Amino acid sequence: MPIRHVVGLFIDPKTEWRRIHEKNYSLAACIFGHTVILSLIPAVSGFIGTTQIGWQIGAGDPVRLTTTSAGTIAVLYYLAMVSAVIGVGVVIRWMGQTYGASQPLSKCMVLATLTASPLFLIGIMQLYPVLWLNFVIGLVALGYTVYIFYSGVPIMMQISQERGFLFGSAVLAFGLVTLVAMLAVTILIWGAGFAPAFTR
């Protein structure tokens, strides 16, 4: 899937979504040509940032992870991101039938994949993992991701703006519930003795 679509979504989302809808990208092109590549940005950046620079929290010394611990987290982080995008694509397809917006799975996956692009790209900030800076920039990226999603739903799913808003809100609610569930699982895993290992 051409990277120019990502640039177009930043410049003029609605026009770019129309161009994207006219294309017939396959599931393989969507997932392997976009998601699995862009998902590497936050995973690799996070690995480098947490092992070489370290998290800066307040005025204290940077906190670094061991290479083994950071590597394990990076791999799991990468798999979680790819799985999340695929899962959202499947949910969009499933929910679309309820809203009278039945589209091929490939179209739904394109919507999910390209919507996540700002979050993948902003992952480069993890090279310099300062908590407050990552939080602020992450909020901006999240806000624009939501905007891109709401812009794309009516076009990609071929429904009205009103139904697109309701449909998009339902998908976002599902995404928030999934995020909370993932955080809960992470806490349970860390509590079971698999917490990150820090360098001394």
- Give unreliable regions as ranges: none
Overall number of domains: 1
Following the backbone from N to C, one meets helices and strands in this order, namely HHHHHHHHH
Q: If you compute it from the alpha carbons, what radius of gyration comes out, rounded to the nearest whole angstrom?
A: 18 Å
Shape estimate: elongated
Oligomer: single chain
Q: How much β-strand is present in the residues? A: under 5%
Summarize the structure.
The chain is built from 9 helices and no strands.
Give an overview in words:
By secondary structure, the protein is mainly alpha-helical. It has one domain. Helices cover 76% and strands 0% of the residues. It contains nine helices and no strands. α3 runs parallel beside α6 and α5 packs antiparallel against α9.
Topology:
Elements: H1 4-11, H2 13-22, H3 27-38, H4 40-53, H5 67-98, H6 105-115, H7 117-121, H8 131-157, H9 161-194
Helix pairs in contact: 1-2, 2-8, 3-6, 4-5, 5-6, 5-9, 6-8, 8-9
Descriptors:
mainly alpha, elongated, 76% helix, 200 residues
